């Protein structure tokens, strides 16, 4: 047996995968990149279909890291060779992968194409039955390679070479997201792509469809068509999607607007096609989405959370709950907002409501106990209506508890204390300063605070300060030292210690996690 040595790339960083994939014409050197995955679990699902000879894998990845991946891989596929990518600080993980039988490792900070090529050639020669020879093949890239490079943002050296494959003036991107479908999408993706291609070619529309390798669970097709036939292409894909929806109801289909410049392929893919896929959250009954078919986006003003909480503290429950319900209803129609942001708003509203309504009120603590159930349910909601239903469920519960609540003696003073702390948390507050302001004896105030509030003074003040710090870490570019000072901590180290104790992460890690969630959108 002889032929190209097949390679699978496994790394959670898209730029690393694209860098390896497109910085060299691998087929010219006897290799073929057959796929890429963002973690070990995803890679294991692909191996049966792709049958790679060599896997290049990162070590630190979400879902399933490289160490676990290599161990499972070598148990079930001992013939596949593995090359590990790592950073300097990860060598203790690399050492454990050698025990599982990896072929070699390369340090990421010094990763060079020439070094990787040399390691791959050495590894390929060891594979029994492959008979690998680093023969030099034609330097001209295939159409598949040219399109993959365009999708990754690399301009072709000769655009005329690319255009010779397409006779018409206009292009449309069409396809589906298969991540919500049960089972392994790779097992039927090729068949689905072939069916769509035949569907288009057998129609009366002069369309030239060409599948492009995109993210691992995306079926993406570039359709070359006369400009006057763009609408008909959408109708054809819509009909195809409707036919497939009975067997695959969770498939999300999208068709882009037409574009004449093939160099715009990447921007149309990232800025329009991927965004259309996310709109399924707002339009769960649509089997196929196209920008021109969607309703106008309503103007939704920013919600005044500060005023909302201030009115909530005044126990204007009926008014504030009605106001929030109305706003959520409006926001649910603004499909341009990524689902993550909409869900974050609902979760933030629940969190702040819980803090305000349980301040100094033991009988409202039930809200605090159930809020995490609502956080989870909203986060897992598959549609905007499902998320809104959970939000309304929380509001109903909060309203019922509020109506049943009758203030106990001393609660009014306690509320005044908490409101003062919320407004002056950034100042050097202490029981002494509170005592002077409210004309209490300091020792009495300490006992009074503990009696009428579930938390002591210091614990409550830290909770308010850390909550404000999380908001600044998520929404501002201030340095961590600046945030520490802004929320009332003079000692940066103490701030970091308190933050990690309350959130489970350091301030810098928390900020990276928030940026990471946004980047996934």
UniProtKB/TrEMBL annotation:
Domain named Response regulatory: residues: 6-123
Residue intervals of the HTH araC/xylS-type domain: 415-513
SMART domains, per the entry: HTH_ARAC, REC
GO MF terms held by the record: DNA-binding transcription factor activity; sequence-specific DNA binding
UniProt entry keywords in alphabetical sequence: DNA-binding, Phosphoprotein, Transcription, Transcription regulation
Pfam families (UniProt xref): HTH_18, Response_reg
Highest taxon above the source species: Bacteria
4-aspartylphosphate modifications at: 58
GO BP terms, alphabetized: phosphorelay signal transduction system
Entry-linked PROSITE patterns: HTH_ARAC_FAMILY_1, HTH_ARAC_FAMILY_2, RESPONSE_REGULATORY
Protein name: DNA-binding response regulator
Annotated source species: Paenibacillus antibioticophila
């Amino acid at each position: 047996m002889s032929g190209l040595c097949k390679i699978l790339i496994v790394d959670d960083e898209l730029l690393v995968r694209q860098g390896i994939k497109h910085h060299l014409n691998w087929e010219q050197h006897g290799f073929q990149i057959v796929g890429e995955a963002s973690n070990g679990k995803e890679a294991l699902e692909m191996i049966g279909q792709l049958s790679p000879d060599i896997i290049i894998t990162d070590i630190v990845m979400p879902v399933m890291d490289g160490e676990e991946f290599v161990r499972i891989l070598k148990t079930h596929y001992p013939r596949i060779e593995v090359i590990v990518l790592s950073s300097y600080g990860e060598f203790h993980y690399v050492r454990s992968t050698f025990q599982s039988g990896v072929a070699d490792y390369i340090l990421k900070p010094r990763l060079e194409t020439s070094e990787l090529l040399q390691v791959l050639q050495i590894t390929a020669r060891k594979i029994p039955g492959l008979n690998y020879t680093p023969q030099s093949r034609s330097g001209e890239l295939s159409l598949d390679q040219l399109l993959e490079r365009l999708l990754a943002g690399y301009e072709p050296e000769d655009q005329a070479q690319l255009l010779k494959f397409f006779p018409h003036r206009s292009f449309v991107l069409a396809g589906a997201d298969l991540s919500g479908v049960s089972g392994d999408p790779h097992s039927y993706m090729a068949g689905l792509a072939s069916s769509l291609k035949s569907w288009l070619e057998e129609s009366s529309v002069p369309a030239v469809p060409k599948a492009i390798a995109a993210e691992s669970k995306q079926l993406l097709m570039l359709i070359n068509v006369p400009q006057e036939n763009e609408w008909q292409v959408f109708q054809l894909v819509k009909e195809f999607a409707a036919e497939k929806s009975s067997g695959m109801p969770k498939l999300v289909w999208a068709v882009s607007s037409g574009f004449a410049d093939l160099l715009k392929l990447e921007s149309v893919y990232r800025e329009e096609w991927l965004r259309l896929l996310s709109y399924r959250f707002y339009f769960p009954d649509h089997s196929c989405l196209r920008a021109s078919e969607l309703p106008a986006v309503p103007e939704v003003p920013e919600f005044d959370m500060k005023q909302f909480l201030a009115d909530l503290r005044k126990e204007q429950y009926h008014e504030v709950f009605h106001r929030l319900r109305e706003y959520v209803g409006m926001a649910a129609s603004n499909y341009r907002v990524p689902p993550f942001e909409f869900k974050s708003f609902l979760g933030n509203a629940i969190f702040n409501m819980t803090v305000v309504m349980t301040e100094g009120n033991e009988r409202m603590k039930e809200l605090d106990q159930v809020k995490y159930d609502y956080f989870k349910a909203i986060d897992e909601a598959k549609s905007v209506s499902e998320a809104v239903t959970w939000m309304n469920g929380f509001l109903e519960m909060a309203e019922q508890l509020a109506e049943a609540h009758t203030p106990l003696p001393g609660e009014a003073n306690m509320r005044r204390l908490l409101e003062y702390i919320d407004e002056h948390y950034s100042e050097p507050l202490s029981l002494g300063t509170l005592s002077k302001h409210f004309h209490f004896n300091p020792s009495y105030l300490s006992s009074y605070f503990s009696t009428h509030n579930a938390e002591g003074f210091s614990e409550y003040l830290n909770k308010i300060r850390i909550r404000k710090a999380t908001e600044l870490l998520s929404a501002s570019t201030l340095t961590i030292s600046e945030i520490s000072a802004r929320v009332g901590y003079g000692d940066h180290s103490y701030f970091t210690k308190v933050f990690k104790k309350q959130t489970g992460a350091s301030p810098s890690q928390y900020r990276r996690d928030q940026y990471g969630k946004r980047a996934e959108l």
